[in-house]
User: Which sequence fits this backbone?
């Protein structure tokens, strides 16, 4: 019988897997998990052929596992291997016939093969077994419409539409369009026209682009089955030992920020006593106070700070909070410029968050006056968008934590109120939040932390109160239950107002998050033993506790990838983790389309049967690896929902994980038969995007036709005497191609034909061609930097003028120009300038971000 679990309000099904792992020899079990983990990473990277290979190898080692058979079949289906998909899915059906995702996948395979009766039967069987989701409704609607069962098609598309854009973000627009068209076919003209009118409004808002048929098959029902991992109940790793080291400060510390401020590879510190800030840079084995030379002397009222790239310019910026609100100092090669406001009013705590998934860092703050949500406009200004967000209902608060608590690809917020209640604000997207009932937590909670304490993929909650630290286990659907015993008995808040006194981190590098809490005159460490059981100990912290120091920060101070402490007293300012603990790895996210620090990205460690999750907050992402140091793969989910796999990570290193380049959507590609093979010509209809916003209320006006030049050597007859061209959809786009015409143009020898085409706003170029003779390249070409680029412009040969002055927005450069000198040209000559090049297109999210950024404007090429 299949097992069900809830995630993000969508029912997914976990296929039961017989206990084959215990029957395998250790080396075979190790290989099995290696293939599973690599297959999962390749699936995340959309390397579907490699995913199918790895998951197929896993199935060979576990032929009696229904979950492995399903995963291999799903990967083969998405990779376009129908025969392999059929064989693997049939095997899964023989092992576990009552799996909803299995019947969904078999139904898709039948739909692709044109067996609509079988497709309908399998998809309905999926529903009978508890399968649900917009992907099921949409594809049932497609099958019904293709069999002319209009009533069923209307019902299925209607169900997907009723979910709304928030619950069906991938399928809503396409379902709405199909719903309206089917209503018109059925004679329900009024309802059909209303649906299509709503669809047109989506198009105007930039949300109406339809996806390919394969993309619309994807959903929770076509994800890899989560294989049960062996219970991780074992003794905690070797106990860490912390060795104190002094810091050059004169007052007690209340907070600290551990970060590489000047990007020299060494860890630096910003520390504060609740009023002033000290900027400490690492110089070999010593700490150097550079506060005055870096422009921070005289600052008062600072109760916390972060180092982040707020404006996405590649420089680290300083963000500070306290009695004067939150302000940020733009960074300039390790120094700080004068501050700029983020939000006003005294704050107790603030966190970075990309709540609108737009690619920059926003902020949310807890304050005694209420919660504040500040949106980054992209031009170093911020806007208070709290009104209308739903967060006004939280009221006075003392702590805020950020994370995707229901795994629905958006960021949720957790608050500790002034009265000590713990409340979750679930994201509804669009800057709106639903305030959930208060969690079943102890009275008078003063601090909270998020982390996957039981390695099940969900962020659990730890809360601190006078009684101690309590763990609230996340059930995956925004419900939380208390674990049995206190992880730590007794806790105090340090400092008494603001600051942090509770951390979840892997101090012994055994692959499980431990708990560290401040106590009166010291701290206690609770080592995670698995299954939400903990071993309390103060021994590792003896030097800190004997000095009656309190931890104020946790981070990687040196290069040994063991987590260290910053404490409240100067003489024990750094407590280095010197224990003989396991190995680890540190990951630095580097966003390109997303914010540079990867705030909001989710990292998953796959190592044999072991699993770990960490959510990026702008610091280094740390994973303990145990004694073996094994890493099979690391999966990354960026804030915009794009997945990425890393398969070359090594233990004991600091690895920068740069967001992979590439486009989610593109334009159709044109290929022509050249007599021996199909040759790529160019992408087409690039000036005809439907519903692409340039800014709110303004859209790229589509130019409905395009003339493409194909030379005689690119287009040759095939063996049947036919001239053949192909138009393909390579990425996530849908092409509306109504008509294609082929013109044969015979021109005199020595001439060249070019179409009258340009990328521009209306009025569009008239249909026509240019017959060019005596074409010449410029004798001199000087760019705005004074470089001679004539050689790069001489031929159409993929050698281009590069190293342009880029902005942090994909496809947008800073202003630049090229001056062309064509030598002696007769004064009465008719001149035509022909340019060939390639655009790196922006997308809707980038265009809307630029519209908020006063520093930039969309300027097309000009002559």
Assistant:
């Amino acid at each position: 019988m299949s097992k069900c679990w809830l995630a993000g309000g969508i029912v997914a099904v976990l296929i039961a897997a017989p206990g084959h792992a215990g029957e395998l020899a250790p080396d075979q079990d190790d290989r099995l998990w290696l293939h599973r983990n690599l297959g999962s990473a390749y699936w995340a990277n959309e390397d579907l052929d490699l995913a199918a290979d790895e998951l197929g190898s896993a199935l060979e080692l576990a032929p009696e596992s229904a979950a492995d058979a399903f995963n291999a079949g799903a990967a083969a289906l998405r990779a376009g291997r129908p025969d392999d998909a059929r064989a693997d899915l049939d095997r899964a059906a023989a092992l576990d016939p009552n799996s909803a995702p299995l019947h969904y996948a078999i139904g898709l395979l039948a739909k692709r093969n044109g067996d609509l009766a079988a497709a309908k039967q399998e998809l309905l069987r999926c529903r009978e077994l508890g399968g649900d989701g917009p992907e099921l409704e949409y594809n049932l609607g497609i099958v019904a419409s293709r069999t002319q069962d209009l009533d069923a098609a209307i019902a299925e598309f209607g169900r997907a539409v009723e979910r709304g854009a928030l619950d069906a973000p991938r399928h809503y627009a396409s379902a709405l369009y199909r719903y309206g068209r089917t209503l018109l076919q059925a004679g329900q003209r009024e309802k059909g026209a209303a649906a299509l009118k709503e669809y047109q409004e989506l198009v105007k808002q930039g949300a109406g682009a339809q996806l390919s048929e394969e993309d619309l098959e994807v959903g929770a029902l076509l994800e890899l089955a989560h294989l049960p991992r062996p219970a991780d109940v074992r003794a905690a790793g070797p106990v860490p030992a912390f060795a104190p080291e002094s810091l050059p400060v004169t007052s007690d510390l209340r907070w600290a920020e551990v970060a590489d401020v000047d990007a020299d590879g060494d860890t630096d510190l910003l520390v504060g006593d609740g009023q002033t800030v000290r900027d400490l840079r690492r110089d070999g084995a010593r700490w150097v106070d550079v506060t005055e030379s870096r422009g921070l002397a005289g600052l008062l009222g600072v109760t916390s700070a972060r180092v982040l790239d707020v404006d996405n310019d590649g420089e680290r910026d300083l963000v500070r909070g306290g009695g004067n609100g939150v302000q940020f100092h733009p960074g300039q090669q390790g120094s700080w410029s004068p501050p700029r406001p983020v939000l006003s009013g005294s704050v107790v705590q603030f966190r970075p968050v990309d709540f609108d998934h737009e690619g920059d860092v926003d902020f949310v703050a807890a304050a005694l006056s209420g919660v504040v949500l500040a949106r980054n406009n992209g031009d170093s200004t911020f806007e208070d968008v709290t009104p209308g967000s739903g967060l006004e209902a939280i009221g006075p608060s003392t702590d805020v934590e950020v994370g995707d608590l229901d795994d629905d690809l958006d960021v949720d917020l957790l608050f500790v109120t002034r009265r000590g209640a713990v409340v979750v604000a679930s994201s509804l997207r669009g800057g709106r939040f639903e305030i959930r009932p208060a969690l079943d937590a102890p009275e008078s909670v003063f601090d909270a932390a998020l982390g996957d304490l039981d390695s099940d993929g969900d962020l659990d909650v730890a809360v601190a109160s006078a009684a101690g630290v309590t763990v609230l286990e996340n059930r995956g659907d925004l419900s939380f239950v208390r674990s049995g015993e206190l992880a730590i008995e007794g806790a105090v808040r340090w400092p008494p107002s603001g600051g942090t006194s509770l951390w979840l981190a892997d101090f012994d590098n055994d692959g499980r998050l431990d708990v560290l809490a401040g106590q009166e005159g010291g701290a206690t460490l609770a080592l995670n033993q698995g299954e939400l059981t903990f071993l309390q100990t103060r021994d590792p912290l003896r030097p800190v506790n004997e000095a009656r120091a309190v931890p104020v920060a946790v981070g990687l101070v040196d290069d040994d990838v063991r987590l260290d402490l910053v404490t409240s007293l100067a003489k024990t300012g750094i407590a280095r983790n010197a224990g003989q603990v396991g190995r680890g790895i540190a990951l630095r996210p580097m966003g390109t389309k997303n914010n540079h620090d990867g705030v909001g990205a989710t990292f998953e460690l796959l190592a044999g049967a072991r699993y770990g999750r960490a959510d990026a907050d702008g610091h280094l992402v740390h994973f303990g690896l145990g004694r073996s140091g094994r890493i099979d793969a690391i999966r990354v989910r960026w804030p915009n929902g794009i997945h990425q796999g890393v398969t070359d990570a090594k233990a004991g290193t600091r690895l920068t994980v740069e967001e992979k380049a590439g486009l989610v959507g593109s334009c159709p590609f044109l290929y022509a038969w050249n007599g021996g093979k199909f040759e790529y010509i160019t992408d087409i209809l690039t000036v005809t995007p439907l519903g692409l916003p340039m800014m709110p209320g303004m859209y790229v006006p589509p130019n409905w036709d395009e003339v493409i030049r194909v030379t005689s050597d690119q287009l040759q007859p095939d063996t049947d005497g036919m001239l053949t061209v192909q138009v393909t959809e390579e990425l996530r786009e849908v092409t509306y191609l109504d008509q294609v015409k082929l013109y044969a143009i015979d021109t005199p020898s020595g001439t060249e034909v070019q179409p009258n085409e340009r990328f521009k706003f209306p009025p569009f170029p008239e249909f026509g061609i240019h017959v060019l003779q005596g074409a010449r390249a410029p004798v001199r070409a000087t760019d705005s930097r004074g470089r001679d680029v004539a050689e790069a412009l001489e031929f159409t040969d993929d050698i281009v003028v590069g190293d342009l002055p880029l902005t942090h927005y994909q496809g947008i450069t800073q202003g630049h120009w090229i001056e062309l000198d064509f030598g002696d040209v007769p004064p009465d000559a008719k001149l035509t300038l022909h340019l060939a090049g390639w655009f790196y297109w922006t997308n809707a999210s980038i265009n809307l971000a630029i519209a908020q950024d006063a520093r930039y404007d969309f300027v097309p090429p000009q002559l």
